[in-house]
Design a protein that fits this description.
The complex is a heterodimer of chains A (about 375) and B (about 290). By secondary structure, chain A is mainly α. Chain A is built from 14 helices and two strands; from the N terminus they run ααααααααααβαβααα. In chain B, strands 3, 4, 5, 6, 8, 9, 10 and 13 form an eight-stranded antiparallel sheet that branches. Classes of the chains: A mainly alpha (about 375), B alpha+beta (about 290). Chains A and B meet through α1 of A and α1, β9 and β10 of B.
């Protein structure tokens, strides 16, 4: 017969064992948001740029998606003066405004008051893998001494106050969102408090932006062995990744880097002289070798995001290819990787140009621009 | 029997009670705490501990003619009279091994014995070796592979930057660049400073003079082994040790071979003749401090 103290002992031990390896669950009454894990596509980096104080959650992403599309984050309610991220970042154009945008002729956006953005647009795609810095010059980056310009979170307040974007103020923006029925509850679910703050607006939108992942182009399927590229696409791919071909891969990735960008900054030989400005890489680093350098953007979805380059100087891919083929100009600042400069470019024949273009278009991912999870929500929180 | 034992008990009562209480107390307290403590830990296999040094740090230094290399300045000249500046330098070394005077050879196992150096990334200029199985004792040399051996040079082994950006396209042999040395050069008769991509990796053999990927008939492994002598070098038990591997940049261009930039199309990654020349010079590019 087992004596009572022994039963007690066994009971205590096992209860102890049961609880000892688990985190204490006494906060069960406070609803915790549901953690969200990004599914890393094959061959994509497994290291992501997610700040430790803004983990991805299902509730945060859902809230971020509303805010991304809600013109009221500009602090205004008049239809003519409302502006959201999606006023410029439009899904059908892989989140640029598009060269055919009736509001922004030529694809050059401007803010609510008509002030044009200093540069043309960047697509919002696979940004969670950018470790070097956001914007054309990478001025929003990890470990920035200016702690308010470090990550996608910060681009939200920047967008709200920028004269060339929402031209508003953050107090107004958060007060308006606070007053919209439904939002306070969503903030509570995502961040534990129904008080709307610009910081939490930034966190939610950044979480949503980090889910904008493109990994389903024809080229991805080829890399995964699911389809064969056409002979022309294939020839274009060979040109893209060979030094004596078109030599694009040193800056734009390729089979070893399916992001199709290094997220690094180069002067790609467009101009021979440069004037001081606030948006090239030199402005950020102060190194003379960065004069006229900009981020080599990802070439994913390249067919959807015309016009091209930070200043939108090329309207079509053909113009871009002609430029790399024979339009390069020398300057002391040109990247050493533009090694075909002595012949003003890589000198492609018309059929090589067509092949290169066919390959570039194989990087278009139509499921990215139609993915319902990235689209405008059917209704906003205050709509019945 | 029963009765007897009870009587026996009764007699012993005062002392036995104290004992029993202590016993129970100990069991109640100790058993659960022991189980609790041990339950969350992984069981660690007892390992044999050999005397070994503490952290070993390898520093990477880059010089031109004995002086620390200065980037982006046109201040260097090769024996053929080319003025050049270095813009970027990124490279792998691997299979690092220490050779002991007693004949032992011990390979560093940290990071699968691969180190990436990038002069633009200060942290990459040091390699802290901690998990290695190095032993105490005298070493007479250190050796490594410049680049990556055929076995290690697998495509897509690095998915994260900065190593990822060293990838060498599959069509050209795959794997990774051993080195990207980006520079600009100019001869006295040239009007402008021209880029040159002194890149090394797997070479290709082409059928004829074309550099079209279709005409590749074979590949060449261009990595090579470097062995550098050490004198009076000793790993002492529990002690930190630092070693500096220096790349003497000028020797890439002036060594067994004299490298003539103008002979190549501003780069050599598709020119095995150029890369093999570079590799021959490379064997004497390193020294140790």
């Amino acid at each position: 017969m087992v004596s009572r103290p022994w039963i007690l002992l066994i009971a205590i031990t096992f209860t102890g064992l049961f609880f000892s390896c688990k985190k204490t669950q006494n906060e069960a009454t406070v609803e915790k948001p549901t953690p969200y894990t990004i599914q890393v596509p094959r061959y994509f980096p497994n290291e992501m740029n997610i700040p430790s104080d803004n983990p991805m959650t299902v509730e945060g992403i859902a809230l971020g998606r509303y805010l991304f599309y809600d013109g009221r984050i500009s602090g205004r309610t008049h239809p003519d003066s409302m502006m959201s991220c999606a006023s410029c970042h439009i899904q059908s154009h892989a989140f640029v405004c598009g060269i055919d945008n009736p509001n922004y002729p030529g694809g050059h956006p401007h803010g609510v008051t008509g002030i044009p953005t200093p540069d043309y647009m960047l697509s919002l795609c696979n940004l969670v893998w950018n470790q070097t810095g956001y914007l054309w010059n990478g001025s929003v980056y990890k470990n920035n001494p200016n702690t308010s310009k470090r990550n996608i979170e910060d681009l939200v307040w920047m967008g709200i106050v920028a004269p060339h974007e929402m031209h508003s103020d953050t107090l107004r923006a958060k007060a308006l969102i606070q007053s919209v029925k439904g939002y306070p509850e969503l903030f509570k679910k995502a961040f534990g408090s129904d008080r709307v703050t610009v910081k939490n607006m930034g966190r939610a939108i950044a979480q949503f932006v980090r889910t904008l992942i493109s990994s389903d182009s024809r080229f991805d399927r080829y890399l995964n062995g699911e389809l064969q590229l056409t002979p022309s696409e294939m020839d274009g791919f060979v040109l893209f990744v060979t030094e004596q071909g078109a030599d694009c891969f040193h800056c734009h990735g390729g089979d070893g880097n399916p992001l199709f960008t290094t997220n690094l900054f180069y002067n790609n030989g467009k101009d021979s002289a440069f004037t001081a400005n606030t948006h090239d890489r030199y402005y950020v680093t102060g190194n003379a070798s960065d004069i006229g350098a900009y981020k080599a953007p990802s070439l994913r979805n390249i067919g959807f995001i015309a016009p091209y380059m930070h200043d939108g100087r090329f309207k079509t891919l053909d113009e871009v290819i002609d430029f790399y083929s024979s339009g390069l100009v020398w300057s002391p600042y040109i990247s050493p990787l533009m090694h075909h400069i002595s012949t003003h470019g890589v000198r492609l024949t018309p059929s090589e140009k067509a092949d290169l273009k066919a390959f570039l278009l194989s990087l278009n991912d139509s499921s990215f621009i139609t993915n319902p999870a990235f689209s405008k929500p059917v209704k906003f929180p205050d709509e019945p | 029997m029963k009765k007897n034992s009870q009587t026996h008990y009764e007699i012993q009562r005062p002392a036995s009670n104290v004992l029993r209480l202590t016993f129970h107390f100990l069991i109640f307290l100790l058993l659960p705490s022991f189980l609790l403590l041990s339950s969350c830990q992984k069981t660690e296999k007892p390992t044999v501990v050999y005397p070994s040094p503490d952290t070993v740090t390898i520093c990477f230094e880059h010089t031109v003619s004995g002086n620390p290399m200065i980037t982006d300045s046109l201040i260097y000249t090769t024996s053929l009279g080319y003025h050049y500046m270095v813009n970027d330098l990124q490279y792998f070394i691997s299979d690092l091994a220490f050779h002991y005077t007693n004949g032992n050879e011990i390979f560093v196992t940290d990071n699968d014995s691969i180190h990436y150096t990038d002069i633009g990334i200060p942290t990459s200029l040091k390699w802290n070796i901690i998990k290695s199985h190095l032993r105490t004792g005298y070493c007479d040399s250190v050796s490594f592979i410049f680049g990556l051996s055929e076995k290690k040079n697998r495509s897509k082994r690095f998915l994260n930057p900065p190593e990822r950006d060293m990838f060498w396209p599959e069509f050209l042999g795959g794997g990774y660049h051993y080195m990207k040395l980006n520079l600009k050069y100019k001869s006295d008769t040239m009007m402008m400073l021209m880029p040159f991509m002194f890149h090394m990796g797997i070479g290709q053999i082409y059928n004829g003079t074309s550099t079209n990927a279709d005409s590749i008939t074979g590949y060449v492994q261009n990595y090579f082994k470097v062995r550098l002598p050490l004198s009076g070098f000793k790993f002492e038990e529990g002690k930190k040790k630092t070693l500096t591997i220096r790349m003497n940049i000028e020797k890439w261009f002036d060594g067994t071979e004299t490298f003539d930039f103008s002979k190549y199309a501003m780069g050599i990654m598709q020119n095995e003749e150029g890369m093999s020349k570079a590799a021959r010079n490379g064997e004497n590019v390193f020294s140790i401090q």
